[in-house]
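Q: I'm building a small set of examples for a reading group on sequence design. Run inverse folding on the following structure and report the sequence directly after it, with nothing in between.
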């Protein structure tokens, strides 16, 4: 029986995990948050597809994948089947986190739909709204037994719900029945209030998946970095003035005369952190000391391993772009048990 992970852990711990005999291939894997979750649950992750060369470098360094493809999912889908390894056509799970900033509740949302965009230097421009359907095209090609796709909560709010209907239709046309779940990482062993949507589609005949995660939330003080360097994490005088007047667990916008600094938040020592987003991690402020959260606190809040090699890249960006490993471990354990009897 695979045990649930709690607290600090290392990649070297994975060698002791009992294997369940199920295979996974991951798309849009970034630094490998979901990959680590599957491995913690005993899955064999064969590799994946990633368009960002820096993310791929991280992935190869930390995960030593068997099959890696540095390209977009559309380009991968165009590779002739005879040129792909046979085991990719025998997958138990096709995993993916299609880029989701178009549907985030922050920013312009609808105004950005249909626009081409790239996240970082070195990436090709892509129409982000199309990537989910390109991902489903890979499923049509590889025919995995189950598909797991993660996305932001904003996808099921407002006008974006029409997009969800299109996704369900695309899964149905591909031969899959689909369920949609809204999960909160703070009830899945992650010290972070991170809500994410998961599409779980299957072409195998099984009862519907039933998910109910209710672990006790982990407060910030449990992951606090008590040796953080106050000098390097110091905030500006303006931020300090707002932070000093702001209640714990509130946005600094609540004390700003114009309501600015909405994303800057003073954390609550007795509650999990807010969602670690790649663009706003540095705006999460310590509850009792006037400083930003440290890299150690970010790693713990995202349940990344302590020995993860970031290769000098920004810790907040890498973690913010990733699925928390503990969140995916809990989810994939249930999928293995309920859908595969593993």
């Amino acid at each position: 029986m695979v045990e649930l992970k709690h607290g600090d852990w290392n990649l070297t711990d994975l060698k002791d995990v009992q294997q369940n005999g199920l295979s996974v291939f991951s798309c849009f894997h970034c630094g490998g948050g979901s990959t680590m979750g599957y491995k913690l649950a005993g899955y064999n992750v064969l590799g994946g597809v990633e368009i960002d060369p820096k993310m791929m470098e991280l992935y190869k360094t930390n995960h030593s994948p068997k099959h890696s493809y540095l390209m977009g999912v559309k380009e991968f889908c165009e590779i002739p089947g005879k040129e792909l390894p046979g085991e990719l056509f025998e997958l138990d799970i096709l995993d993916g986190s299609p880029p989701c900033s178009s549907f985030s509740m922050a920013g312009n949302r609808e105004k950005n739909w249909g626009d081409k965009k790239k996240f970082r230097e070195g990436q090709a421009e892509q129409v982000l709204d199309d990537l989910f359907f390109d991902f489903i095209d890979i499923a049509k090609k590889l025919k995995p037994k189950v598909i797991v796709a993660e996305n932001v909560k904003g996808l099921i709010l407002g006008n974006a719900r029409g997009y969800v209907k299109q996704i369900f239709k695309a899964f149905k046309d591909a031969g899959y029945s689909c369920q949609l779940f809204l999960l909160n990482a703070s009830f899945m062993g992650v010290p972070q209030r991170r809500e994410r949507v998961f599409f779980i589609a299957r072409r195998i005949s099984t009862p519907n998946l039933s998910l109910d995660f209710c672990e006790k939330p982990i407060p910030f003080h449990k992951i606090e970095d008590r040796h953080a360097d106050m000098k390097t994490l110091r905030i500006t005088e303006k931020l300090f003035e707002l932070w000093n007047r702001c209640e714990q667990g509130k946005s600094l916008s609540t004390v700003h005369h114009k309501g600015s600094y909405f994303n800057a938040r003073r954390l609550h020592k007795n509650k999990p952190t807010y969602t670690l987003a790649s663009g706003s991690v540095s705006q999460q402020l310590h509850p009792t000391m006037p400083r930003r959260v440290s890299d150690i606190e970010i790693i713990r809040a995202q349940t990344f391993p302590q020995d993860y090699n970031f290769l000098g890249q920004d810790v907040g960006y890498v973690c913010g772009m990733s699925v928390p490993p503990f969140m995916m471990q809990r989810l994939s354990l249930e999928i293995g048990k309920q859908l595969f009897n593993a």
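The first strand starts at residue 23 and ends at 27.
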